[in-house]
Amino acid sequence: MATNGIVIVGGGLAGATAAEELRDRGYDGVIHLFGAEPHNPYIRPPLSKEYFTGKDGRDSVFVHPETWYREKKIVMTTGERVTILGDHVVTLAGGREVPFDRLLIATGATPRRLDVPGSGAPGIHYLRTIENSEALRDELADGGRQVVFVGSGWIGLELAAAARGYGNDVTVVGPEKIPLAGPLGDELGTMFRELHEQNGVTFRLETNVLGFTQSDGRVSGVETDAGTIPADVVVVGIGAAPDTALAEAAGLTIDNGILVDEHLATSAPDVFAAGDVANAFHPVIGQHMRNEHWANAIASGKVAGASLAGADVSFDDIPYFYTDQYDLGMEYSGYPPLTEGAEVIYRGDRLKREFIAFWMQGDRVVAGMNVNVWDVNEDVQKLIRAGRPVERARLVDESIALTAV
Ligand SMILES: Cc1cc2nc3c(=O)[nH]c(=O)nc-3n(C[C@H](O)[C@H](O)[C@H](O)COP(=O)(O)OP(=O)(O)OC[C@H]3O[C@@H](n4cnc5c(N)ncnc54)[C@H](O)[C@@H]3O)c2cc1C
Predict the structure, then answer these.
(1) Within 13 Å, how many C-alpha atoms sit on residue 3's CB side?
(2) pLDDT tens digits for range 262-274
(3) Which residue CA neighbors atom 45 of ligand 1 most closely?
(4) Angle between helix 154-165 and 130-140 (nearest 10)
(5) Which atom of ligand 1 is nearest to the CA of 321?
(6) Whose CA is nearest to atom 27 of ligand 1?
């Protein structure tokens, strides 16, 4: 008979969602939730959007209000890192040992660091936490700064848009030829580049950062293989690495994150993983996928909570994410591994940036992205989930409802 309860390591969205799912399923044992940050679990998308721009306040980022943890009898411990995972027991940084029946690792991801001369200079920022977001906002909110973004991924471009909104001069530098070409392909990556250029952003692409210059004790420029770019503020956004240290030291199988099956079980008995840190087997596409997205943290957190409660549930959601930049909002659903080599076809007006893009493998839709077109994401997901052949002419014909394609 189980007696020690559940331990969740990682007080982010995946961990908090798993705790909620456990209680929703009627689990009434002890639930410990340990978070290394000094905050209750919060969501990160607003850190580069509504919270960063000042549209929403700090309260809006928390997953649950403070009182929720007491009401649900979740033992929430903030500012405390779990340092050792043993056999049905974890050890905290302070030395306390906490035994468990089942454990969830939801330790998230950590920004990749740029290791070049001068990279420790004040004025060089990374973005993962509330504190990172506030520190960067303090630097940019008055406008008039020369801001250089290293990396042209999602977070960098969202922040570039917000930095322009505050009236700063913005340059984006990176080795890639086209921003976002990896996830979206050349055509749609170019659309994002043009969107930013039309809003005053300068791109210095196919350019490598070699180091940073300093003046008066803070960063003053970005040295590249194509010359030095003056900078008052630098934001490095070159991706994130799954935080696998705890699992790795405990001997769990690691491969681009913690390897888990469709129930989110790791290679160790009674230990599960969810969120950014988990590389989960997807039963529909028959391969592992690791997704660093908000919706993935929620969906996998729910399945992890169910598995921790002893239910037989599979994690088979279609990956989903969204972004907002200037007046462009988009939602993407689909299986990134299946989009390689796929043909992209469009429904709607690309010039006005009001359309849906579909990634086609043969006659099957494997991904879809709605840009400034709303209330269609569920229909796009249905097309992907159905996995049946569709007629392209009907798919791109706006006079035919997506549900009737
Ligand atoms: C600025 C920003 C903007 C984003 N915008 C979007 C967006 O627009 N759309 C989208 O889909 N996704 C977005 N994301 C991604 C999304 O936020 C992540 O996928 C999500 O936060 C993952 O949740 P998680 O719970 O797995 O991990 P995290 O949110 O990283 O939480 C993990 C927590 O575990 C803690 N931890 C780590 N190790 C230990 C330990 N040993 N002991 C105790 N605690 C530990 C960490 O400190 C952290 O607090 C964004 C991310 C960032 C940083």
Answers:
(1) 1
(2) 999 999 999 999 9
(3) 10
(4) 40
(5) 11
(6) 108
User: What pLDDT, in 10s, does the model give residues 27-39?
Assistant: 999 999 999 999 9
* DSSP line for 227-269: EEEE-SEEEE---EEE--HHHHHTT--BSSSEEE-TT-B-SST
Q: What's the gap in Å between 358 CA and the centre of ligand 1?
A: 28
Tens digit of each residue's pLDDT (9 = 90 or more) over 209-247? 999 999 999 999 999 999 999 999 999 999 999 999 999
Ligand 1: nearest atom to the Cα of 275: 26
Give the number of other CB atoms < 10 A from CB of residue 374: 9
12 CA: nearest ligand 1 atom:
31
Residue 2 pLDDT > 70 = no
Per residue in 182-206, pLDDT (tens digit) is 999 999 999 999 999 999 999 999 9
**27 in Cβ contact with 53 (< 8 Å):** no
Cα(261) to centroid of ligand 1, in Å?
21
CA 148, CA 232: separation in Å to the nearest integer?
8
| Residue whose CA lies nearest to ligand 1 atom number 50 | 45
385 CB near ligand 1 (under 6 Å): no
Q: What are phi and psi of 374, to 5 degrees?
A: -115, 165
pLDDT surpassing 90 at residue 318: yes
Spatial distance between the Cα atoms of 192 and 185, rounded to a whole number of angstroms: 11
Mutate which of 100, 276, 303, 322 for ligand 1? The one with the most ligand atoms within 8 Å of its CB, which is: 276
**Contact (Cβ atoms closer than 8 angstroms) between residue 362 and residue 200:** no
Q: What is the pTM of this model?
A: 0.96
pLDDT of residue 3: 83
